[in-house]
């Protein structure tokens, strides 16, 4: 599948993972706004579905890790034990809540000990629907005079289908309402499962990115009885298969560089199949960096780590902390943002 215009707008791109989620609780409008005003090329959001069929920006189907739902007595009876992609989970599941009910919850920082500034916003910020985020992106794009891209990851489509909830139709309907269901919209749809991406490719011309990780297999293929793993899809033959429906791949960083910084052949193999390559997720804290890029204190050399991926030829970096990467690349910042220290 030849690359669309939207997949080639900025190379290499800096993509804010769940917004500037090193500074604000993930997937909040404040996290997205901060990232856009830093100057990122795209924002990334994960999408899950409410009981009434609305797509909302959350990474987890279970809500207690990043919201205050466990402290809300009115929802105590919603606690469930449920099987998600073959594994048992306990907690409060997004598909047991309506959009209006989710609107009463407040976001919490996932890593409060590591990200104390973000944790300082716990209980203050609401959750966001896809509609909310797209409206924010439109407003911020108009404010800055530049087009900001949106990378949308569909989470657990097989699970939601079993719950009677389809992700594709509400996605395309929402994009249509915002005038974004076309190849020049700078919208990219991503996912680990292959079937849902093929369905979107049949119904829309937005860019498609297949996500790959070093372990496991697409859950939809497991359910179908296929033996194809993510590493199979990362092979030259697998990349040719992905090219049938997608414009790019989004890959775990270990598939591109080993801990010593030695590059694999994946980027070159993908480019030979006309697939762009985004790498995820780059984080600033030493805890998430290979030893070579760790430094004394809390933070390591994120800019140096990012440079190693750019030297390997990737087309985009998906990062929790956009500002140090943008500064290292000499990218222009919003004037107000440029005056703040890197930690702010």
Automatic annotation (TrEMBL):
The keyword Signal applies. InterPro entries: GP_PDE_dom (IPR030395), PLC-like_Pdiesterase_TIM-brl (IPR017946). Coiled coil: none annotated. It comes from the Bacteria. SUPFAM superfamilies: PLC-like phosphodiesterases. Belongs to the glycerophosphoryl diester phosphodiesterase family. It comes from Nocardioides dubius. It is an enzyme of class 3 (hydrolase). Residues 12-315 form the GP-PDE domain. It catalyses: a sn-glycero-3-phosphodiester + H2O = an alcohol + sn-glycerol 3-phosphate + H(+). This is glycerophosphodiester phosphodiesterase. It holds the Pfam family GDPD. Its EC number is 3.1.4.46. The lineage of its organism: Bacteria, Bacillati, Actinomycetota, Actinomycetes, Propionibacteriales. Keywords: Glycerol metabolism, Hydrolase, Signal.
């Amino acid at each position: 599948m030849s690359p669309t215009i939207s997949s080639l707008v900025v190379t290499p791109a800096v993509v804010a993972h769940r917004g500037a989620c090193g500074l604000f609780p993930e997937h909040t409008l404040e996290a997205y706004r901060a990232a856009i005003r830093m100057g990122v090329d795209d924002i990334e959001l994960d999408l899950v579905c409410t009981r009434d069929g609305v797509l909302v920006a959350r990474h987890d189907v279970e809500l207690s890790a990043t919201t205050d739902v466990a402290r809300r007595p009115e929802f105590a009876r919603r606690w469930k034990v449920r099987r998600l992609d073959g594994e048992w989970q306990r907690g409060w599941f997004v598909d047991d809540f309506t959009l209006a009910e989710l609107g009463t919850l407040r976001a919490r920082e996932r890593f409060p000990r590591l990200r104390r500034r973000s944790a300082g916003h716990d209980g203050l910020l609401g959750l966001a629907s896809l509609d909310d985020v797209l409206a924010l992106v439109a407003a911020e794009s108009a404010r800055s005079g530049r087009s900001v891209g949106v990378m949308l990851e569909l989470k657990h489509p097989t699970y939601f289908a079993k719950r009677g909830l389809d992700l594709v139709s509400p996605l395309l309907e929402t994009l249509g309402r915002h005038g974004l269901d076309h190849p020049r919209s700078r919208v990219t749809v991503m996912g680990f499962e292959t079937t849902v991406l093929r369905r979107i490719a049949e119904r829309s011309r937005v860019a498609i990115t297949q996500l790959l990780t070093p372990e496991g297999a697409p859950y939809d293929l497991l359910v179908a009885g296929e033996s194809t793993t993510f590493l199979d899809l990362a092979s030259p033959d697998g990349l040719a298969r992905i090219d049938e429906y997608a414009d790019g791949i989004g890959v775990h960083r270990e598939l591109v560089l080993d801990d010593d910084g030695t590059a694999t052949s994946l980027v070159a193999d993908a480019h030979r199949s006309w697939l762009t390559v985004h790498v995820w997720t780059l984080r600033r804290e030493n805890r998430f960096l290979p030893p070579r890029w760790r430094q004394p204190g809390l933070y390591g050399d994120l800019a140096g780590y990012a440079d190693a991926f750019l030297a390997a030829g990737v087309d985009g970096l998906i990062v929790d902390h956009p500002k140090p990467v943008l500064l290292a690349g000499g990218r222009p910042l919003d004037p107000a943002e440029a005056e703040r220290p890197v930690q702010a």
